[in-house]
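Dear colleague,

Following up on yesterday's call, I've attached the two folding results inline so they're easy to grep. Please treat them as preliminary; we haven't cross-checked anything against experimental data yet. The first protein's sequence and structure tokens come first.
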Amino acid sequence: MKRISVSLLGLLFCSCLFANTLPASTAMSTCTGKDVCSINAEALTNQATTVAPQTIHIQLTAKQPTTEIRMPANATTGYAWQLKAYDSTLLEIKRVDYIVSSQLIGAGGQEVWRITAKPGVFSKPVTTQVTLIYARSWEKNQAPAESKTIVVAIR
């Protein structure tokens, strides 16, 4: 499996794009063939509470219909990434794994989310969004600690 990691530490707002046309200030990685691409979003965490939600841009094609996104997480704190909104007519999304970064007590890790375009959606180009929030499931009236918007271009 081909792994692509995007590392942009220190930026308050950045994008990871799998696209053909990019603004000059963005990072680009390309996946080819039938490999599942993987984006390591650990470098995309909010650095300040006043920052707007982080945005990740991906492109899915008939030859590359699936992408995995690795989100930094720490299950020992009670926080987890939760799927808040997406278009279920276009995408299938699921949390597929939690990878611990260390065997130390309280160590964080990464949640792995898989985004797959449904068969038959490649007939015309379309763009949709996925929203994930990082929150504790039992804190219903609290604002999430973080959120990510994933812009998905289906081509």
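Below is the second protein, in the same order (sequence, then structure):
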Amino acid sequence: MLRYSGTSSTANFVWGQGDFVSGVANQNLSAITSATLSQPTGLAVDGGGGLYVADNGNNRVLYFAAGQASGAAVANRVYGQAGGFTTGTANLGGIGANTLNSPSALVLDTSNNLYVADTGQSFKQHSSCKRRRLVV
């Protein structure tokens, strides 16, 4: 994921890779980490500048708090992998309120509730203090 500031055509921040020239899923590491991405497909930014990323290839959504360094950003929260940053299995442990299968799009409402289009399951997920799964 890249960020371009203002009208600049040069990216000034990178998430999921250690630099601006790498392009291999999960940074070509042998394990998934809280700093890697595989096929990011959607994003949402909260009121504090935190970034939610739909990490489709790892069947999860990651939250990166604002204020981190480019190329060294580490997720603070993970959705869809039962709280674990080092797995990427679809529906880890079975389909449930804390699993995802190919999340693709994200939306935050005015109360910072996160909605996830979980395309591998044809569901939408809603995350706040209470999580519920909505069938579409």
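For the second protein, one point worth flagging: The longest strand covers residues 40-45.

Best wishes,
A.L.
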